[in-house]
Amino acid sequence: MSRLENYVLKAYNKPIRECSDAELYRVLLDLVKDLGDGLPKHTTKKKLYYFSAEFLIGKLLSNNLLNLGIYDEVNNELIANGKSLLDIEEAENEPSLGNGGLGRLAACFMDSITTLGINGDGIGLNYHFGLFQQVFKHNNQLAVPDPWITEESWLNRNERRYQVKFKDYTFTSTLYDIDVFGYHHDKRNRLRLFDLESVTGDIIEEGTIHFDKSNIEENLTLFLYPDDSDHAGNLLRIYQQYFMVSNGAQLIIDEALDRGSNLRDLADYAVIQINDTHPALVIPEMVRLLTERGLSFDESVEIVRNMTAFTNHTILSEALEKWPMSDLDEVIPEIAKIIRRLDEKMKAEFPGNHAVAIIDGHGRAHMAHMAIHYGFSINGVARLHSDILKDTELRHFYDIYPDKFNNKTNGITFRRWIMDANPELADTLDSLISPEWRDTADLKPLLEYKDDKAVITKLRAVKFNNKLRLKKHLKTSQGVDINEHSIIDIQIKRIHEYKRQQMLALYIIHKYFDIKNGNVPKTPITILFGGKAANAYTIARDIIHMILTLSQIIDNDPEVSPHLKVVFVENYNVTHAQYLIPAADISEQISLASKEASGTGNMKFMLNGALTLCTMDGANVEIAERVGQENIYTFGRDSQDIVNLYATNGYNAPDYYYRDRIKPLVDFILSPGMLYLGDEERLRRLHHDISTKDYFMALIDLEEFIDVKEKMYADYEDHDNWSRRTLINIANAGYFSSDRTINDYNRDIWHLEQEHQDIKE
Ligand SMILES: *Cc1c(COP(=O)(O)O)cnc(C)c1O
Fold first, then answer.
1. HSE toward the beta carbon, residue 78, CA cutoff 13 A
2. What are the residues facing 359 on neighbouring strands?
3. Closest atom of ligand 1 to CA, residue 101
4. Which of 236, 262, 588, 726 is the most exposed place for a label (fewest CB within 10 A)?
């Protein structure tokens, strides 16, 4: 009897074919957890702790089966019994532990860390309701809780407890672990997610994500990034961050002591990577814990400096956290005291250098500054981004610590983003270039087939099947019908002005006019958006409203709808992404140059055979370098132009708004049809913003964007050449494997023992 049959029989006393998908899910969960329990633990002396406010891990069942090497065995057995793994995975809730690129990066990294045989855990919080679940109603985004924790989750309760002391409370934490399995690797790591037992969803107002922000005991781990537009919201963010890092720091010390550390040598036992500034309070907390255990302040500071590294993810000033010292005093006075001492120490070393102060003239503590002074490494996440940090945003730090600065271009795990999300393409690659790429991420041998007509045709057939799969998925998930024979053109990412979803919307208006004028596209076009807007970010919600309203106008217009369809995918998450990306022909990466630190969506699309339409921003620059200008579509001002424009206040929106090709597009937002279907206040506010302020310069590159898009659609009509260029993109995606990224982190920053090392490039 097979392992699966055995489990099924024990649990339900019936054969596989008589079980429901939910029953099979439960059995597979148990089977995987038991297999995990049987794996050996890491025994190396030094261990990595990856601190992150989010881990956007996606559903885990099929990925765990893949990494444990039993995917095919289980899948085949299920098929033989009339079952499908894809259907069974419907029973799994996607964990609401993250929200965007930064959290997805942390998830890819955990997969690669484990696959490379590195001893390393992720440290975070066990949010009960995530960011929120996005629901569309009357063309508006509504936010409701996104519950995911059930009996059948991947969480394993751990018996560890820690005391976390705030000014007004002392909490006893609970800890949940989620096993992380490496591909072809037998040692597992864990996500360590801290929680508080007294937290309850009962305090949330029905149908909203509002709750009493001052009720810390009951709200602490309810939501990721709770609304911080008022004082109580700011304090709650500090409560969350400190709760995460205090637990994490205590865990590090305990585990190091267990492995034989005497604390003075702690930096030989642990290295901390801080993913963005949210976990930066781990620095003063670790100093506090070490001094409490009898080390001097200066000695503790040096230990912490030698074990902490910081990853910067943004140059957007709004996202660089600065906490008023008065807020820190209100929540964690002991930590505030240590931050003041760290600030004094640094000011004594660099007298008069105000640009690098931790506490500024307004009494605000800059978390990034603290992490740079009191860590040994700071990295950006794509080459261009790291250069901008050195030359512009953090140049005063680069002047004093040139050796701390380094670049680590982001990556994505090929296990999830091709093997799991696009099995047909993965199998095709196996048969063309041998399955070795699954371990090495080396796809270059595919280039040999770039002029092979049969291979090109096969790639197009795979793309078509993925479009069919997406069609079915969208039909069941939101009742939408898309044309599988259309060009699939996708922009999926957080809704933010700098990501310029407005530009693609304005292009759609252009296309709408064009079709009304009788210029019908040869192949129909489907443009898909996905992404959440922060609930308090009004203009971002206005953008969603505009796109949903526009989509309705097009659907209602029989002249246009056969040729153009616009879909806003509701509640974009990893599950949707795994259907969307393999089906895409066009990957929209149109941020305002200099503002997108790296992007990782761009890498997933490339790997899955979409052609990129992009500004020269973030990792797009490195993608363009690898595929060559003839296999990518770039447009727009470059980052240097944009940095200069900001420095000189050189952009004036009306200069662009009044242009003949632009004004009618922007004004369509206030057309009678839009106002009839839409919310006048939202549409007017958006129109006013774009035509007068346009802080992220959506209009500056619009004309060029329209021209390049037209060229791209025209080029699509040469099907063979298009597919040939998708092959070249796939073949050059190997560099963007997160195994390569993690290899770089380990070589330059962590210096941990590594059991697997077969990374190309
Ligand atoms: C990859 C990914 C992101 C990040 O996308 P970018 O285009 O890099 O911003 C966000 N959300 C999900 C669900 C993802 O899979």
1. 23
2. 365
3. 4
4. 262
Residue 101, both tokens: 């690129």
As a CATH number, domain 414-737 is 3.40.50.2000
Q: What is the C-alpha separation between 652 and 228, in angstroms, rounded?
A: 31
Cβ atoms within 10 Å, residue 23: 17
Q: Is the CB of 612 under 6 A from ligand 1?
A: no
Residue 131's pLDDT band, with cuts at 50, 70 and 90, is very high
Query: Quick check: CB of 582 below 6 Å from ligand 1?
Result: no
Beta strands in 493-620 (DSSP E): 525-530, 564-569, 586-589, 611-614
Ligand 1 center from residue 57 Cα (angstroms): 11
Choose among 554, 552, 534, 568: nearest CA to 136: 568
User: What is the atom index within ligand 1 of the atom nearest the CA of 603?
Assistant: 8
- Whether residue 574 has its Cβ less than 6 Å from ligand 1: yes
pLDDT digits (tens, 9 = 90+) for 94-118: 999 999 999 999 999 999 999 999 9
Share of the chain above pLDDT 70, in %: 99
State whether the beta carbon of 599 lies less than 6 angstroms from ligand 1: yes
Longest dimension (CA), the chain: 80
Where in the sequence numbering do the catalytic residues fall? 313, 493-494, 499, 600, 604
Q: Report the mean per-residue pLDDT for the chain.
A: 97
From residue 567, alpha-carbon distances to 472, 531, 546, 547, 586 in Å are: 14, 12, 12, 9, 15
Residue with the two structure tokens 């690129």: 101
The CA-to-CA distance between both ends of the chain, in Å, stands at: 44
Q: Is the CB of 441 under 6 A from ligand 1?
A: no
Beta carbons within 10 angstroms of residue 322's beta carbon: 17
How many C-alpha atoms does 222 have within 13 Å on its Cβ side?
28
Residue 49, beta-bridge partner list: 121, 272
Protein residue whose Cα sits closest to atom 3 of ligand 1: 101
Q: How far is the CA of 182 from the centre of ligand 1 (A)?
A: 22
Give the Cα separation of 612 and 603 in Å (integer).
9
Spatial separation of the C-alpha atoms in residues 246 and 233, rounded to whole Å: 20
Q: How far is the CA of 131 from the centre of ligand 1 (A)?
A: 15
Contact call for residues 311 and 408 (beta carbons, < 8 A): yes
pLDDT tens-digit profile of 149-194?
Answer: 999 999 999 999 999 999 999 999 999 999 999 998 789 999 999 9
DSSP 48-78: EEEE-S-------HHHHHHHHT-HHHHHHHH
Pairing of β 170-180 and β 156-158: antiparallel
Q: Which residues of 550-559 are buried (b: 16+ CB within 10 A; e: fewer)?
A: bbbbbeeeee
In one-letter notation, the amino acid at residue 9 is: L
Q: Which single residue is written with the structure tokens 């049987």?
A: 38
Under the banding of pLDDT at 50, 70 and 90, the label for residue 758 is low
Q: How far is CA 697 from the centre of its chain?
A: 24
Distance of alpha carbon 604 from alpha carbon 583, whole angstroms: 11
Q: Full-prediction pTM beyond 0.90? A: yes
Give CA–CA dist 477/469, Å, rounded.
12
Q: 10 Å Cβ neighbour count for 616?
A: 17
Length of the chain: 761
Q: How far is the CA of 100 from the centre of ligand 1 (A)?
A: 5
C-alpha to C-alpha distance for 375 and 271, rounded to whole angstroms: 10
Taking the domains of the chain in order of start, what are their residue ranges?
A: 1-38+61-93, 414-737
